[in-house]
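Practice problem 4.
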């Protein structure tokens, strides 16, 4: 059987069309403030950008220059890449554009490999074209990737690994290059170990030859790379695991975590359409060949992992979360393959069978309709974002954070300390020592008590990574000069706000420490006078 697949001209046109779409998408994430156009990433990605900026400036991978060493990120190689971008002669307002452009290029390369895999397993160019179309047009994958998360590089590495494994299955010649790709992926995010071990187990079961050696190589590469990360982490941060692990995974009953993960899975399947979601898995189960089962296994592995960690904090936005998104190309390949097979089978039911061209058109039309369904997870809102009618996810919030960062610079001196909930864009652009109220970059909060919701709403009110805070420590002990935001249960913060005065800045209420020498009170008075404030 052939192990080669040459991408046709249609695929290349689709990739070029995607490049144009991504360019518009990225531009629509930007905004102007004053006379400056800003590009800002998803706020978690901006946390990584702050670490990267400090690393590029010689302070090391820390959240605050000269501050405590806490690993408040889970994407070390992505942070390292971001730090390189900060060395380029580019304005701070534009560095994020370089990250977004890099993500677009990675996703374009990914589409080429999607076409290769789809063509290889199905032998059909129409399947390859539909798989590329569905992958390129999937909004959650674009959102997470083009707004700066490491999803883009993880998606590409997983797809390339699948391509290598599938070629091996076809040729019968064992290859371990896929271990290298997914091993590298663990340096971008540790939980890339999930697809690595998933593929290793699948190959061990389906390919008895060299089973023991393949498992040893996979396990060995995993132990080597995770061990290397752990040693570096212990040496620099003094922790076995990233701070975010303690923040998200400790102090929560496993029943609550798994229940929230299952609810997130249920909502994802429902919003994607249970029938359409089930088609590729049923197709793989009926075919029972190694290639379709491999694609289904990769998707199932990421879905299982998502349930295990309790889903993501942004499940209310709909669509695939960050853990599932990296496997969506595999699902789209399998779906396109199943769709083409169904159309062909349906065509045989007619006395006068339609030609291949007619069947191809029908398949493309069904794929386009499916794409609309896949992206309608939030109704009109997500469809408007998908069609670039409305700005992408959190663009308005990003602008608000930049506005607050600029205002912080106006009303405080560089020595001031700020307390934030949105811990990405504000500290990055404000360039002030920051206190993370939700503990992503704070060891004390991350190891503290989780505020578990009570009552019947506890499952839907649980947001991984956003359930720990300690106002007695973050405000009472650390005494920030400016508190820009307070998370849930603001009444718990009230006992520690006596040394502060509330001040209204547009739609935002800030708390300013009355005795702070780093707050420019005269400037605040002038701003209020200039803007007609009290």
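Answer key:
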């Amino acid at each position: 059987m052939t192990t080669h697949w040459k991408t046709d001209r249609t695929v290349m046109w689709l990739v070029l069309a995607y490049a144009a779409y991504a360019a518009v998408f990225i531009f629509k994430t930007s905004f102007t403030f004053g006379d400056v156009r800003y590009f800002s990433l998803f706020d978690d990605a901006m946390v990584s950008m702050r670490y990267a900026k400090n690393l590029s400036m010689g302070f090391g991978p820390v959240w605050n220059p000269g501050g405590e060493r806490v690993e408040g990120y889970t994407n070390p190689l992505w942070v390292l890449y971001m730090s390189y971008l900060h060395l380029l002669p580019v304005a701070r307002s534009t560095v994020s554009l370089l990250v977004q452009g890099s993500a677009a290029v990675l996703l374009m390369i990914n589409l080429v490999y999607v076409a290769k895999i789809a063509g290889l397993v199905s032998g059909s160019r129409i399947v390859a074209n539909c798989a590329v179309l569905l992958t390129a047009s999937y909004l959650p994958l674009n959102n997470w990737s083009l707004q700066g998360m490491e999803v883009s590089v993880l998606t590409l590495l997983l797809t390339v690994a699948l391509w290598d494994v599938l070629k091996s299955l076809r040729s019968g010649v064992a290859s371990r290059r896929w271990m290298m790709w997914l091993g590298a992926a663990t340096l971008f995010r540790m939980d890339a170990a999930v697809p690595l071990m998933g593929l290793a187990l699948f190959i061990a079961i389906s390919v008895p030859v060299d089973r023991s050696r393949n498992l040893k190589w996979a396990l060995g590469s995993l132990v080597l790379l995770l061990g290397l990360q752990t040693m570096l982490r212990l040496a620099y941060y003094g922790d076995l695991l990233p701070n975010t692990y303690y923040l998200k995974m400790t102090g929560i009953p496993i029943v609550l975590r798994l229940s929230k993960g299952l609810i997130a899975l249920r909502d994802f399947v429902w919003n994607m359409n249970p029938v359409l979601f089930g088609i590729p898995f049923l197709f793989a189960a009926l075919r029972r060949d190694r290639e379709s089962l491999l694609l289904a296994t990769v998707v199932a592995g990421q879905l299982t992992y998502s349930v295990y960690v309790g889903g993501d904090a942004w499940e209310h936005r709909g669509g695939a979360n960050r853990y599932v998104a990296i496997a969506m190309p595999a699902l789209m390949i399998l779906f396109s393959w199943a769709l083409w097979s169904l159309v062909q089978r349906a065509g045989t039911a007619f006395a006068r069978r339609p030609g291949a061209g007619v069947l191809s058109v029908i398949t493309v039309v069904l794929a386009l309709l499916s794409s609309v369904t896949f992206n309608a997870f939030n109704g009109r809102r997500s469809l408007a974002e998908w069609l670039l009618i409305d700005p992408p996810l959190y663009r308005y919030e990003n602008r608000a954070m930049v506005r607050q960062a600029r205002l912080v610079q106006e009303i405080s001196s560089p020595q001031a300390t700020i307390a934030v909930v949105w811990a990405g864009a504000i500290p990055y652009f404000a360039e002030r020592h920051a206190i993370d109220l939700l503990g992503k970059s704070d060891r004390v909060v991350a190891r503290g008590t989780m505020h578990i919701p009570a009552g019947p709403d506890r499952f839907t009110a649980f947001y991984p990574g956003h359930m720990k805070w300690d106002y007695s420590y973050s405000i009472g002990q650390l005494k920030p000069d400016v508190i820009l935001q307070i998370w849930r249960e603001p009444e718990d913060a009230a006992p520690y706000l006596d040394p502060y005065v509330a001040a209204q800045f547009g739609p935002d209420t800030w708390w300013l420490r009355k005795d702070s020498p780093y707050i420019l009170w005269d400037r605040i008075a002038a701003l209020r006078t200039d803007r007609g404030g009290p």
